[in-house]
Design a protein that fits this description.
The chain has 304 residues and is mainly alpha-helical. The chain has 16 helices and four strands. The protein has a single domain, classed as P-loop containing nucleotide triphosphate hydrolases (Rossmann fold), CATH 3.40.50. A two-stranded parallel ribbon has the order 1-2.
Length: 304
């Protein structure tokens, strides 16, 4: 699974992990193959250690499919090549969503994790050029500075096009988070078919990894430290609980920000539309009725 981030990969991986014929990496995101950027995970030194660490007992299990559920691989410039080196016949499962919503949600996630020190999304977007030059980067950061390039990380059209240039599209399966929300059963069945795993007829699909609102900013700050995040993951693994009931601050996106981001990602959305041969314009590029040229607001007008 190549990603992308904040696109429903955690939910899909959790559904697939219940099938004995599929072994999902544990922890979920090794990030082993994105060797060009630091994105968390647990560093290992070799392919053998990778398998032993993240897929223990794979050789003796009933699993026909080993699923690495890392979400940074699609963005990485080297991950696909590394995967093909490791497994030339690999298949690629990709989850995507509207880049506008993805960028906003990614900022929220990184801030909660303590990897983004600018609470205001508009200001964080403004800082992209400066951060590309190594300025205004958060202190005590353990993810790569490239992860704070919101436009690049969420340029899903360009990333999918690059994937198709390296891999036969027949070996790539793409699903939309929109469809996961509307028809999780349909997405689940299609993915099982792509993986060559029989459908078990599952009809219950609980929501996972939802961003819950934290009313206490001090609690959010305490919980986003790296030790706290590791402790939470350990508790969830031991107890089998999917969520502890708290998450990132869930703040609504301002209309002006949505309009600006829609224009910023317009070419990426059109590219996705062409690659997937699917109409995304009505849902992802809605017309701004009664606003005239407001649909093409400048950065200053949008306060971004």
């Amino acid at each position: 699974m190549l990603g992308a981030l904040k696109c429903g990969t955690t939910a899909l991986a959790s559904y697939l992990a219940t099938r004995p014929l599929i072994q999902v990496s544990e922890p979920k995101e090794p990030n082993y193959f994105c060797k060009d950027l630091l994105a968390g995970g647990f560093p290992v030194a070799s392919d053998e250690e990778y398998l032993a660490t993240f897929f223990p007992g794979l050789g003796e299990s009933k699993a026909h499919v080993a699923l690495d559920a890392s979400v940074w691989y699609l963005y990485s410039g080297v991950a696909v090549d590394e995967i093909l080196r490791f497994r030339p016949d690999a298949r690629f499962l990709v989850m995507i969503r509207n880049p506008v919503d993805m960028a906003y949600s990614l900022h929220s996630m990184l801030h909660f994790m303590g990897q983004e020190d600018v609470f205001d999304f508009a200001r964080a977007w403004q800082l992209q050029d400066a951060r590309r030059q190594g300025r205004f980067l958060p202190v005590n950061r353990w993810v790569d500075a490239q992860c704070l390039q919101y436009h690049a990380v969420c340029s899903l059209g360009s990333q999918l096009e690059r994937l198709y240039q390296k891999v036969d599209p027949a070996r790539v399966h793409v699903e939309l988070q929109d469809d996961m929300r509307k028809d999780p059963r349909g997405v689940y069945a299609r993915v099982l078919n792509f993986l060559g795993v029989p459908d078990d007829g599952r009809t219950q699909f609980d929501e996972t990894n939802a961003g819950h609102k934290l009313n206490s900013r001090s609690l959010a700050t305490a919980l986003r430290s790296r030790p706290a995040l590791h402790a939470v993951k350990a508790i969830k693994r031991m107890t089998g609980i999917k969520t502890l009931g708290f998450g990132r601050p869930d703040l609504p996106m301002k209309l002006e920000q949505r309009e600006f981001l829609t224009e910023a990602f317009r070419q990426e959305i059109v590219l996705l539309e062409n690659l997937l041969k699917r109409d995304l314009t009505q849902s992802w590029l809605p017309a701004s009725e009664g606003r005239g040229d407001r649909n093409k607001v400048s950065a200053s007008e949008a306060e971004i």
